[in-house]
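Please go through the sequence and fold tokens given here and tell me how the chain folds. Record follows.
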Amino acid sequence: MLGYLLLLLLFSLFFSVSFYFGFREWRRPWDAAPLPIDVEYVRVENYFGRSFRAKMQQWLAEAQPNGIAAGLLPSGVLLKTSGGEHLLTLPGGRLERRGEQVELIYCEGDLTLAGGSTFRREIYCRGRCETEATVQLQSIAADGDVILGLQNEVARWVDAQGKVRLRSGTVVGSRVSSSTSIELERQVRAQSLYAPVICTADCALRDDPVASPRGEAAPPITNGQAGTPPAVPPYLAGVRCLQLSPRTWLVQDDLDLPAGCRVESNLIVKGTLRAGSDCHFAGDLKASCIQLGSRNRVGGNLVSDGSIEVGEGSFIARNVAAGTHIRFSAGVRVGQLSLPAVVSAGSEVGLEQDVAIYGKVAAGRWIKTL
């Protein structure tokens, strides 16, 4: 009998334990307050660089409160932060290769990193930072320019208040941001780019053409008689199409436009849109797949469920988005300095030489210069 009672007590104990944590959460909920989220993470393109600079100043103040207040920090000294981080302070100059560098680095002046060096932690340079060939970095922030040498590898991000230049073969695993410009040589890869001007090799920036103002409304396309079907534009003759609004036409199949065609309305194509050379589009374009010829001009957005290919010397005033990949041929311009644009692809963005984008480029896999 006693054994049965012990078994009953043991069963009751284990059974009550399964409800204990739920009862405790009900009485004193730990998740009553939402988790803190810094919304600047998605609003500010150079969030990583700004946050790292602020954190570095905090570490320096904790390690050397008198020195940071007076603007005098010991150079070539290894400091230890309150979090146990090791921080190396440098006056500037050339940092020779010494195997793997595992400390955080803070440099007061210009900094040059020797070829073949490996840095496992972040670097903050108050001046200009330049690397030689085959340098491996974690992340780098500079108040001046950042010039990365041949075949460098950056595991995370690069941020500069001056210009950023990535030489051939350099790979950046995450974001590159600059307050002035980003220059990309051939065979460069990154995941996202943000700067007022992003340009590839041999790019000669000039006064780019200005698209027609988006605020101008095109006159309704009608035949002048009330209650009758709208007149079909010449470029849609013989094509299964439907007018969705005075400024928008829907095409049910593929659409091939001849060279020099002028489209004054928004255009939605359920199939593939192919345009010859010297075509002009006053509004937005959307299709399953888009292939634009050379010297095309698009005054609105360019959107595709699949891929987008833009021919040489073309100009796109607004944003470009593709479900798979994007390829810009030589001489393509996207956006304007006064009206930045966003280029986004689900897979890859391929940029040939002499391409300029004003704004931001992002890819699900890679942005590659060809």
User: Anything to note?
Assistant: The chain has two domains: 47-179, 234-369.
